[in-house]
């Protein structure tokens, strides 16, 4: 029996059945397009439809009821929702999808009626076949030539097969993963942010950083999705060229591959373009002989013949413009105007970008920010600028789920990342997410204790830098690579000394022996800033944490040991200003971590760092902020023998009225677990919640002497507290700043009775009962050391 594709239009090759043969889809695509699956249109267009219809929700609700698409009961329920809100319009769309295919088809027909279009003019952006008016391109129409249809479908089949899998940085020969198992939607905006906004993005960390990204994920910053890249602008004009800018590791090439695959599968841009071609700039650099445009496309002669059809709507996706070695300066070479005419690659590509070759085609070009202004000058006037900002918190969570496929494992990895403020911030960068997930999976497969074995912040950053050096700086020799890292370190250090995260051209020229190398550097970002009547180029690291990392790295790049130690003494004499740099230095002094970045040895600064740390621990006057900093240094060093030695010198750890973050608790847990026994630990008024108590529980249960204040503890969390208390302790103080039920108080008192001695105890109870009172009296009478019970 012939096997038939039963999946809806645009679904072939999606995540739920990624191995489905795309041949089946392409063969029936033209038929399926006639019977468009409108339920999926409403799902895929829900965000934009929700925004458009929220302008007047009562109007659309009335028409939906009049056309009998919903019941009277549905109408009454929907009408009770707040009017003219996205909540209501979203509920209307969800209700219609619940009604099935027929109701959705009638609803789409309703939206295309003239009266509705007049009420909601932006609906023309959603349905390309409705666009009219001067300056607005019509969408691609299916070619009528049956021979062309066959050739295009064959091309789509080959694209599906080529692009459905992706090779990862650590893939062995023949290893690939499905694109659908990795690709996660990115936050892309059109707005050029102001200097103040960019500084905010660079400086903020953790939850605050995610809140900033949430504000960018809005209409105010013109958030845009892939299927909207060629929508008309506010003036009704369709852009002929779209620039997709993004920093290194932010997913530009991945997005390009996804666009190719989804176009061939009929999921995006199919209403706009009959053909989409992909040019990889890294590959174009390797071509020395003269070539025509069709030679560069590497497609069959049959597909090339379709290009002769002037009615075709064609998109060229040019990936990695910043990697090109070409200057695109004026030469004596006559630019080709025929796609079949041979010319130097620089001339051919330049003619395509400038609109001299195939002037009716469309362009989508990905680039790093350092080359955006050069690209913009080459392109025609009608262009759209977009900027990839990376993953929001939702995107990070989704990426982890796709990577692991197991809900519990994905949640475990995500929760770990949230305990580390710096890594949580860096996870907006897709490559950082991949590194963390890869490392986490390996540790899980080997059954290692993630508390002790999982990589440090420094090691994740080292992996990131080594990946960029290996895969994006391939032309650099070893000496040039070292010069680059030293220059980055000097720029980073100077910025930290002067409280700068944005740098002008002068600052770069002072740090880089060859300032032109700065534009080719994958670790810096560039943007144009208006300054009165002119523009000024500004540069930055991807985030302040990377600036701190490179500032630390330069200490290990110095050839002269005496010079390195002199600089180190100055740095350690100013701890308060440079805590993150010092923590990264401890991480880089771990020989195994540094070896991932550099194979040859350098004069070691580890002995000096360790001597300094031990001398600080022996100083009884060290304040609590300083104690916390030392714990972070020990965690980044991640050498268990030395951590055990340092903790032995310390002996007694006490924090009073200093809020501990999840990152602090994770670091404290690691350091405590390196000790065979823990003599004394006091955490008083440190914002230890049930979540943080759960993190610390394995170490707390082994303390000989313990003082503890716990906040936001519910009755269901009492078991965690009891496990943390263990038995046989000298419990100097216990305060539970939450009201507990009598039954929970009884359990806590039972745990206290198992301790060696008990000092001050303060418990809150929701209801005072005879039983509770009796238990408290009994506890006081039988516990000689208990001084206070409140």
Structural description of this entry:
- By secondary structure, the chain is an alpha/beta fold.
- The chain has five domains: 36-130, Orthogonal Bundle (Death Domain, Fas); 146-390, Rossmann fold, CATH 3.40.50.300; 399-467, no CATH class; 473-549; 597-789, Alpha-Beta Horseshoe (Leucine-rich repeat, LRR (right-handed beta-alpha superhelix)), CATH 3.80.10.
- It is built from 39 helices and 16 strands.
- It has a six-stranded mixed beta sheet, sandwiched between helices. A six-stranded parallel beta sheet has the order 11-12-13-14-15-16.
- This is NACHT, LRR and PYD domains-containing protein 1 homolog.
- One of its GO terms (molecular function) is ATP binding.
- InterPro entries: CARD (IPR001315), DEATH-like_dom_sf (IPR011029), LRR_dom_sf (IPR032675), NACHT-assoc (IPR029495), NACHT_NTPase (IPR007111), NLRP_HD2 (IPR041267), NLRP_innate_immun_reg (IPR050637), NOD1/2_WH (IPR041075).
- It is found in: Inflammasome.
